[in-house]
Amino acid sequence: MSAVEKAFHGLRHMIATGRLGPGERIPPEGELCEELGVSRGSLREAVRMLAALGVIEPRHGSGTYVSRLRPEDVIGSLSLTLELLPLSGLLEVYEIRRVLEAHVAAQAAARSTPETVRTLFSLIEEMENADDPALASELDHRFHAEIARVGGNPTLASLLSVFRARSRKYQVFTLPEGSALRAKSDEDHRALAGAIADRDPVAAAGAAQAHVAQTERWLRTFTPPVENDEGTPG
């Protein structure tokens, strides 16, 4: 184990065991280096690694603190590694997405309000009228993010946002078949929003699962190129 790894795991153990709690300032460098048996350089690199994961927050002029350790923030850091997955790895993730998207859609249907319904159909109309693929992709993300938000679990919403961000790297709507695929995606969105408007959790779960499965099939069939964040639906 390298000195950096030793420092990293030492700090992680302090946080995991509760010795350092959310929001607490970590001990001075000298004390930590002596306790962990590492140099200041190794300790600082470990702190940078934990900061990238959202676990530690260096505050200029104040010191270094354990973050609030909110589950949604820690889950969000998965984007650092998930975005490294090749398409084959991403497709394995889709099985998880199907389950989670169905769950949050069912929860959203149970909690649906007239304002929720107006927001969802407004986003659908904007998507259908958008000529710019990047804008359509952003609106698609906002549509699914709104459903996850209404579902009521910020951690699930954060995890699904990470999953969707990775799939958006693959373009589909710019392929020769793009127009037909986009029309099918619009149809799926209306079915999902309709089930939520009807406050029908079972129908909403089914619509969400079918929509994610359809996107997975497109990725398997067309193997689109990786470009900017535009083109692939939810």
UniProtKB/TrEMBL annotation:
<dbReference type="InterPro" id="IPR011711">
    <property type="entry name" value="GntR_C"/>
</dbReference>
<keyword id="KW-0805">Transcription regulation</keyword>
<keyword id="KW-0238">DNA-binding</keyword>
<dbReference type="Pfam" id="PF07729">
    <property type="entry name" value="FCD"/>
</dbReference>
<dbReference type="InterPro" id="IPR008920">
    <property type="entry name" value="TF_FadR/GntR_C"/>
</dbReference>
<protein>
    <submittedName>
        <fullName>FadR/GntR family transcriptional regulator</fullName>
    </submittedName>
</protein>
<keyword id="KW-0804">Transcription</keyword>
<dbReference type="Pfam" id="PF00392">
    <property type="entry name" value="GntR"/>
</dbReference>
<dbReference type="InterPro" id="IPR036390">
    <property type="entry name" value="WH_DNA-bd_sf"/>
</dbReference>
<feature type="domain" description="HTH gntR-type">
    <location>
        <begin position="1"/>
        <end position="69"/>
    </location>
</feature>
<dbReference type="InterPro" id="IPR036388">
    <property type="entry name" value="WH-like_DNA-bd_sf"/>
</dbReference>
<dbReference type="InterPro" id="IPR000524">
    <property type="entry name" value="Tscrpt_reg_HTH_GntR"/>
</dbReference>
